[in-house]
Amino acid sequence: MSSPSALLSGQTPLAVRMRPVSLDEVAGQRHLLRAGSPIVALADPEASSPGAVSIILWGPPGTGKTTLAQAIARSSGRRFVELSAITAGVKDVREVMQEAITQRDLYGQTTILFLDEIHRFTKAQQDALLPGVENGWVILIAATTENPSFSVISPLLSRSLLLTLQPLTDDDIGVLVDRAVSDARGLSGTVALSDEARSALIRLASGDARRALTGLEAAAAVALSHAAAFEADDDGEDREMVVPEVTADDVAQAVDKALLRYDRQGDEHYDVISAFIKSIRGSDPDAALHYLARMIEAGEDPRFIARRLVISASEDVGLADPQALGIAVAAADAVAFIGMPEGRIPLAEATVYLATTAKSNAAYVGIDAAIADIRAGGFGRVPLHLRDAHYPGAKRLGHGRGYRYAHDSEFGIVPQQYLPDELDGRHYYEPKNLGAERDISARLERIRRILGDR
């Protein structure tokens, strides 16, 4: 058995050492590993190369994109070339293509090109891949954490099969952790893992295998250091060798906090803010606070969150609660004034207020309907009696003639047409019978009667 120091010091990281050597060892992604699937076909050394399709693997970090590519290479016997879009350029891609042609023509060997983080390639760099993929010089396996619909050019997408990887389940992570503790490539039984520590690692991993194994390695190092310190304090008596146990405290010391799947420029940014707004609209303050916390912990710009709250107050609450917009604006001002982390408090107050108050989108629907009419050409001329009559010659043109001053009326409203003739009688604002709009609805009904319900 290797010594603990050899296993945990100066070696390849545990997450790399524990990468599967075949598809049978891959945890999770069962939906991609069924018999006859493209990945299984690529990994089959008996399968013929002609017709092998290039694939794009899309999924969160730590779900096995690189693992699958390397397992395919080891199992298939095909030539395997790996490039990273972070460091590679067009020149590197062309060199791989030329060498792939040479290997095919001289030795009949097919090349698999694994390109990690393809979303980092520019359009020109991705264009350089097209001839090799289209002509079958290489079988491309590309990996990305960002939505390929936005990050990969259409010609390359159309020539590849898009496969979506899912976050690993708790059971999948548990299998990987247990294997890493006992396997000779991993910790080789130099530590034991308590049930509480195992559960903590699974919880903190958030479906990320790399996170789980990195946390396990760090926690094992903590446990072994405690054991070494205990031995150093020993009185020298012979004692039975006891395998150190990794505890939940060791995990807490080694792993600061759970990994948040959140990319401020990618899908998670849009998905989480979408869920945040929809939770407020749906009057669920608990869900809204959850998504607010996710954004705060991921380092989202608090000004962006505050702006979304102001929009939500206008769009979803509206005049059902006229105070909502003021509270959202006050929260935005407070965040700008006090900064973070204290700014989380006014953000939370505004979030809870908006989620629990009455809702109406009537004003929002109204302005959109009015804009739709304008864009369709339904605007007409301003009625003569409403036109500006203050400049010389305006009265001669009839501007202001017949205008009735509303404040001269007992109720502050006089029968009078305000919309252009083409839109007379058109109603854009239809208040709901919710919150403060109940009163507005009743008042508006009386107003429209006085105006002649035009």
Number of strands: 7
Round the mean pLDDT to the nearest integer and report it. 84
Query: So what's the overall shape?
Result: elongated
**Which fold name corresponds to the CATH topology of the largest domain?**
Rossmann fold
What is the makeup of the main sheet? 5 strands, parallel
Which regions contain 5 or more consecutive residues with pLDDT less than 50? 1-6
Distance between the termini: 91 Å
Structural class call reads alpha/beta
| SSE series | HHHEHEHEHHEHHEHEHHEHHHHHHHH
In terms of DSSP E residues, the strand content is 5-15%
CATH top-level class of the largest domain: Alpha Beta
Describe what this molecule looks like in 3D:
The chain is an alpha/beta fold and 454 residues long. The chain has four domains: 29-164, Rossmann fold, CATH 3.40.50; 169-254, Helicase, Ruva Protein, domain 3 (Orthogonal Bundle), CATH 1.10.8; 267-356, Zinc Finger, Delta Prime, domain 3; 372-450, DNA polymerase III clamp loader subunits, C-terminal domain (post-AAA+ oligomerization domain-like, Orthogonal Bundle). The protein has helices at residues 4-8, 14-17, 38-43, 65-76, 90-107, 123-127, 130-134, 148-151, 154-158, 170-182, 195-205, 209-232, 248-254, 267-281, 285-297, 302-317, 323-338, 344-356, 362-375, 437-450; strands at 54-58, 79-84, 111-116, 138-144, 160-164, 192-193, 245-246. The strands form two sheets. It has a five-stranded parallel beta sheet. A two-stranded parallel sheet has the order 6-7. Helix 5 links the parallel strand 2 (79-84) and strand 3 (111-116). Helix 14 packs parallel to helix 16 (302-317). The model is unreliable at 1-6 (pLDDT under 50).
